[in-house]
TrEMBL record:
The keyword Repeat applies. It holds the Pfam family LRR_8. InterPro entries: Leu-rich_rpt, LRR_dom_sf, LRR_TM_domain-containing. Coiled coil: none annotated. GO terms for cellular component: plasma membrane. This is Putative metalloproteinase. It comes from Anopheles braziliensis. It comes from the Eukaryota. Keywords: Leucine-rich repeat, Repeat.
Length: 251
């Protein structure tokens, strides 16, 4: 399924503007200040660096920006007004945040199907996020402390990456109080020491498709039952053992 922002602005009757298969930069942008719509969709566009100058050209009326396909390998986020940003299969490998812009307005951030290998510390500045979808990238290490300041974050999707480690450095008792739904399925995790204690408000979780040790699965099952968490999905073709719907391996 393609990533697409679904903004508030539809409710206000503002339109959707599309640009397809064009090359954009700050000098020849095809983005005219004041003429953009509530939702802007760029499809198949070439943008070497989507930075502060292009974000400024969006204008304050653009509440939702969807970047689909094409070639947009670098983004430096610099908007004080966007509500939603979706970046799907653009070849993105670098996502930074311009520290001179407040970022409390952004509620939804979707970055999917990109060669993104690591998360910038600047991501922690998105204090207003409700939904963060980082699925189907190439992440391998994720620091939970990045999400500590996101006190409205309900949905965190880290599925279908290459994650082998998910935790804090140095080890701390992080508490992500607002997260209700957590997806870490289809990664390379063997254990997740901060689960579920780091998520005291968790309602649902997806854990399948990893390389869990059987010792971790046994402990996690007890914690899941004790906390009343709903687990979605199950492993079926297991080369190792199967406990409570999850494949696990002795180790």
């Amino acid at each position: 399924s393609e990533a697409r922002a679904v903004p508030h602005h539809r409710q206000r009757g503002e339109g959707v503007r599309r640009l397809q298969n064009v090359t954009l930069d700050s000098r020849n942008s095809n983005l005219t200040v004041g003429l953009t719509s509530g939702e802007l969709v760029l499809e198949g566009c070439q943008v070497n660096h989507f930075g502060s100058e292009l974000f400024q050209l969006l204008g304050s009326r653009t509440g939702s920006l969807s970047l689909r396909g094409g070639h947009i390998p670098r983004i430096t986020y610099a908007s004080a007004t966007l509500d939603t940003l979706a970046v799907d299969e653009t070849g993105l490998y670098e996502f930074e945040v311009n520290s001179s812009y407040p970022v409390a307005s952004l509620r939804i951030l979707i970055i999917t199907r990109n060669p993104l290998e690591q998360l910038s510390p600047g991501l922690a500045r998105f204090s207003g996020l409700h939904r963060l979808d980082l699925s189907r990238n190439q992440l391998s290490f994720v620091e939970l402390g990045l999400f500590n300041g996101m006190q409205r974050l309900r949905d965190l999707d880290l599925s279908v990456n290459r994650i082998v480690w998910l935790g804090t450095v140095p080890p701390t008792n992080v508490r992500l109080l607002s997260i209700r739904n957590l997806w870490v399925s289809y990664n390379r995790l063997q254990w997740f020491d901060d689960f579920p204690d780091a998520f005291p408000g968790l309602d649902t979780v997806r854990l399948l498709g990893n390389q869990w040790t059987c010792g971790w699965v046994d402990r996690a099952r007890q914690d899941i039952m004790r906390h009343g968490i709903t687990v979605f999905g199950a492993d079926y073709d297991c080369p190792g053992e199967r406990q409570g719907g999850l494949c696990c391996y002795e180790g």
